[in-house]
Write a structure and sequence with these properties.
This protein is globular. With about 475 residues, the chain is an alpha/beta fold. The protein is built from 16 helices and 20 strands. Helix 1 runs parallel beside helix 3 and helix 1 runs parallel beside helix 11. Helices cover about 40% and strands about 25% of the residues. The protein has 3 domains: about 250 residues, FAD/NAD(P)-binding domain; about 100 residues; about 80 residues, no CATH class. The protein has a 7-stranded mixed β-sheet. It has a 6-stranded mixed β-sheet with strand order 9-3-2-13-20-19, sandwiched between helices. It binds flavin-adenine dinucleotide and 2-acetamido-2-deoxy-beta-D-glucopyranose (4 copies). The site of flavin-adenine dinucleotide has 31 residues, from helix 1, strand 4, strand 10, helix 10 and helix 11. The site of one 2-acetamido-2-deoxy-beta-D-glucopyranose has 6 residues, from loops.
């Protein structure tokens, strides 16, 4: 390690991490006139071949609401591909399209994490009062003193002091790790027995899409599944969700021959489009899926957490980034209320920041707990549902009610993906919907024509108050 220096910055907000949440938070706080310094572990430069084809994410209304606030939504949507529904691939290779919503104007977007992150970072860096420093890893923070140590790529270590630190450093947050060591900090982490691996369907000739471009593709196979989202270069990024251990698992597929057999048996239609699969399978990492909960989210006014740092969730509702963007908007609103004169004319005092962070946590914690729980439920559903006739029948009845009673009966999926109603509200309505469905399916004997719509009408009034 080379010499160590100390840099003091008065009235500065430090963000740790310039991922999705960090870059959009830097942009929005910067626009309000706050001095923002961001330390990001990654290098700014990436391998060009990797750029467009990096992992892609489903962006929905919640995330879009925050992106609109940046003033750059139109620019961002240029790299986004609308997905109008799910394309289910059966084991025989048949494709069935399920629109996401009875309203054809509603859709999700597929967006490259890398390109989105770049755009947000570029817009933020253009502001005079925002500085994003790349190749800088936060090693530790001294929360009480408001100091932290940064290690750069050359091995140079620098100690900074700052007014306040916001941990935007993802699921394995260094800021959160420092907080967890404090007294009376609740913390839990829980890993799924499944992990994931990214694979690729390259573009066809002249950048042609080899599967339907405007769908989120799903290959449900009971205890495991694969999904694929489109990229703007015509490729698809596939993600295989698969157990770590067991008879059919990442561990058991330990040779190219076994991988070849497995894909031929379960994903034959996709496999035909994956010329580099056998190499990709062994060169790409197998990653784990974790749910992290912690509370409180702040230590006085000294630090707080947003996005995955505050609440890592499993990806089965495609909501982690969307939830992170909702956090950002809420936190910025709390800053607005706490510092009504704006960043330039406000002193960032510990007391006012503390109030601001408490208000932010009060608004968000129950909602992030709700989406964390629902994401795990959705994983269990997606995994087991294919073999449960009652589950499939209830889904049918749910669609019937949505179509028969629009605005009165709204499914939990719709509330999560196509509304900006709080997640905790979606969770509550989801439970009430289940009560209604349970009553309706009782005597229907798996026959949709036997569903008593008069009873449904009455139950919607009674149970949902609609
Ligand atoms: C397989 C998978 C699929 C997903 N699909 C979706 C989806 O379809 N839709 C959706 O909304 N969400 C999805 N998510 C979730 C989404 O990726 C995350 O919720 C989102 O990236 C969280 O943003 P963040 O900014 O909090 O964290 P990140 O995006 O992880 O950013 C954290 C940043 O902090 C930096 N950093 C980390 N440690 C340090 C340190 N010590 N010092 C400095 N910098 C540091 C990192 O380099 C990174 O840039 C998915 C997640 C997974 C795993
Ligand atoms: C970050 O480090 C990489 C080498 O690891 C270097 O190529 C790049 O120029 C550095 N980027 C910045 C912004 O310092
Ligand atoms: C799949 O398609 C084939 C041929 O088009 C058809 O015979 C078969 O019944 C279909 N299977 C399912 C499960 O839909
Ligand atoms: C920590 O967890 C306990 C037990 O669930 C709970 O009673 C307490 O309120 C939690 N504390 C915080 C700060 O969330
Ligand atoms: C923050 O303010 C509170 C309330 O005035 C005080 O109790 C606490 O010691 C302060 N913390 C720091 C780190 O200054």
């Amino acid at each position: 390690m080379m010499s160590s220096t100390t840099i003091n910055s008065n009235n500065t907000i430090t963000l740790m991490g310039s991922g999705l949440a960090g870059s959009v938070l830097a942009l929005l706080l910067g626009k309000k006139g706050f001095n923002v310094r961001v330390h990001e572990k990654r290098s700014l430069e990436v391998n060009p071949a990797q750029r467009a084809r990096s992992i892609n994410l489903a962006l929905s209304d919640r995330g879009i609401k925050t992106l609109r606030e940046t003033g750059h939504l139109a620019d961002i949507l240029e790299i986004a591909i609308p997905m109008k529904g799910r394309m289910i691939h059966s084991i025989e290779g048949n494709q069935t399209f399920q629109p996401y919503s009875s309203d054809s104007k509603k859709h999700l977007y597929s967006v490259s994490r890398q390109l989105l992150n770049e755009k947000l970072g570029e817009h933020a860096s253009k502001l005079d009062n925002v500085e994003i420093l790349y190749n800088q890893t936060c090693k530790s923070i001294n929360i009480n003193q408001g100091t932290y140590d940064i290690l750069d790529k050359d091995g140079q270590s620098t100690t900074y002091s700052t007014s306040t630190i916001i941990g935007c450093d993802g699921a394995f947050s260094a800021v959160r790790n420092s907080m967890v060591k404090l007294d009376r900090q609740n913390y839990s982490q829980s890993y799924l027995e499944h992990g994931y691996k990214e694979l690729c369907i390259p573009p066809g000739e002249n950048g042609a899409f080899l599967l339907d471009k405007n769908s989120l593709h799903i290959w449900p196979r009971g205890s495991f599944m694969m999904i694929a989202l489109p990229n703007i270069d015509g490729s698809f990024t596939c993600t295989l969700f698969f157990p770590f251990d067991g008879e059919l698992s990442f561990k058991s597929l330990d040779s190219k021959e076994k991988v070849h057999q497995f894909f031929t048996q379960y994903f034959a239609d996709a496999y035909k489009l994956m010329p580099t699969l056998l190499d990709d399978y062994f060169s790409n990492p197998t990653s784990s899926l974790v749910t992290v909960k912690t509370s409180p989210w702040n230590y006085q006014g000294k630090c707080t957490l947003v996005g995955d740092a505050a609440h890592a969730i499993v990806p089965f509702y495609g909501q982690g980034m969307n939830a992170a963007f909702e956090d950002v908007l809420e936190l910025v609103n709390c800053f607005d209320k706490a510092f009504p004169k704006g960043g330039q004319s406000s002193q960032l005092s510990n007391e006012t920041l503390w109030e601001c962070y408490n208000a932010y946590q009060n608004a968000r914690k129950a909602n992030s707990d709700a989406i964390a729980e629902m994401a795990i439920e959705n994983f269990i559903e997606m995994r087991d549902s294919v073999s449960d006739p009652m589950f499939l029948f209830k889904k049918k009845v749910e669609h019937l009610l949505e179509q028969t009673y629009p605005n009165r009966f709204v499914s939990r999926y719709e509330l999560i993906s196509y509304s900006t109603e709080p997640y905790a509200y979606a969770q509550k309505i989801g439970l009430l919907n289940q009560q209604i469905l349970n009553q309706l399916v009782k005597d229907a004997n798996f026959d949709i024509s036997k569903i008593d719509l008069a009873l449904a009408d009455k139950l919607i009034t009674q149970v949902l108050n609609k």
